Amino acid sequence: xxxxxxxxxxxxxxxxTYMPLRIRASRALARTxxxxxxxxxxxxxxxxxxxxxxxxxxxLLKELHRLDLRDKYVLDMGTGSGILAxxxxxxxxxxLAVDVNPLAAKAAAVNVAANGFGERVFVxxxxxxxxIGDKKFDLIVWNPPFYPKPSVGPPQAAWDAGxxxxxxxxxxxxxxxxxxxxxxxxxxxxNDMDIPLIVGVFAFHGFRSSVPKTYRRFLESFEVRSFSLxxxx
Length: 233
Description:
Layout: H1 5-29, E1 33-37, E2 40-44, H2 55-65, E3 73-77, H3 83-90, E4 94-99, H4 102-114, E5 121-125, E6 137-142, H5 166-175, E7 179-190, H6 195-204, E8 207-209, E9 213-217, E10 220-229
Helix pairs in contact: 2-3
């Protein structure tokens, strides 16, 4: 089948954005660096997603700062360096921060302690909700992997969501069991993703989506969507 003009343009855009990001990611993942961000000082070691290099982290920071998180319980899924967990804690939330990458979980714990939020943020390694038990949250925030490719290891889990977005499908199937009444999941997506398919997956599992907020940067745009459970009574 000959691809449509729309699909051809999308593939070209994906190539132009994906490859430079991969190059920058490889460089960032290959060394330990210190970064000042959002009022915090972060140590980002080799093999951990770097929040300063990639616009999605900055967008989610903006979204968190728009929320009233006082006395809320927040789950920072895929915490990486811990920047979103720190931002939520600084706004009065209690936070559980998890990452499938043990190196990231360790880095986040170090950053949380170094920035003085060890009493408000607890960090653990977890593959999605595997190590969370029956805890329920007011907000689950996630900067998910964008690419429908098999992951070859924990560092690449920040990028590769498995065939047909399998990791995001697993999240959508389980997240509802970990939301308090009126709780929400807030995620960011790239326009290189199949967003209608993903929104449909969430709908299948009983979620409704907010109107997306769109951010544009160079050749790529992003959508932030909040998902809440439909009335199950």
